Amino acid sequence: MFPEARLPDAPVRVAACQYPVEFLGDWSHFEAKLRGLVSEAANQGTRLVVFPEYASMELASLFGPEVYGDLQRQLEAVQALLPDYRALHRALAMEHGLYLLAGSFPVREADGSYRNRAYLYSPEGSEGFQDKLHMTRFEQEHWHISPGHEVKVFDTHIGALAVATCYDVEFPQAVRRQVEAGAWLLLVPSCTDREAGYQRVRIGCQARALENQVYVVQSPTVGEAPWSESIDSNVGLGAVYTPVDIGFPDNGILAQGRTDEAGWVFADLDPRAITRVRRKGQVFNHRDWARHREAADLPIEQVVL
């Protein structure tokens, strides 16, 4: 049963970034860009900002064409920037008194493998992370990124949050575990290079919101980066998805940006609406997962017609 004590006691304004990938001149360019974006969101009363998958990879442009034009060399080079990257996001979360999901970063582990890692920062400066669990063909076959092995839920002042990075949201099991552990809000940083890829992630977001009766926030990279071997084309739009039932939009879309347009998508999330729909909705998707599990074990009968 959903632990209501882990819901916030008031509505929460969230902001999903449609993050424009750019060629950076130097670190100060990146820092000014990030500071400006977070300040803009904070000025709108936002308590949680979400940046997309692999937004960090524009940092490869700081190392020259011999690096940003090589898939493996760019992974190695950006490791030198990881401490400053983490420190900057932590400082911005503390400065503005909000929660901040940083653009995911390919972090090199002690054994030399890489994880696609999304760091979450609190207003007090604490740090947590969720590694991506399912690798796309590009990540696995060309970039050699390894899958994570832990499913996490973050207990915060705005309730229990969870992260499902891009391809992860296309699978229900891990997200379901996060919801059963108390998450009322799912954050989905994404990076897709084609319309079909964006639509797969969008459909996954809406499916997870429907079946778990939770809010889902998607943040994508946008724009063209022909200089990059990893994030050369970025298609998508930010959105906040909801259950499809009484008290929510009929199409399950609370807020949505414009395709491939840089900027923020804002929405006010009401935790009481989640409690209400789970108790008095037309359907009880969240509650009926128990029956779903039973159905998975039913025998299959082949019928010849």
From TrEMBL:
Residues 12-271 form the CN hydrolase domain. The keyword tRNA-binding does not apply. Gene3D superfamilies: Carbon-nitrogen hydrolase. One of its GO terms (molecular function) is acyltransferase activity. It holds the Pfam family CN_hydrolase. Keywords: Acyltransferase, Lipoprotein, Transferase. It comes from the Bacteria. The keyword Amino-acid biosynthesis does not apply. Belongs to the carbon-nitrogen hydrolase superfamily. NIT1/NIT2 family. This is Nitrilase/cyanide hydratase and apolipoprotein N-acyltransferase. It comes from Thioalkalivibrio sulfidiphilus (strain HL-EbGR7). The lineage of its organism: Bacteria, Pseudomonadati, Pseudomonadota, Gammaproteobacteria, Chromatiales.
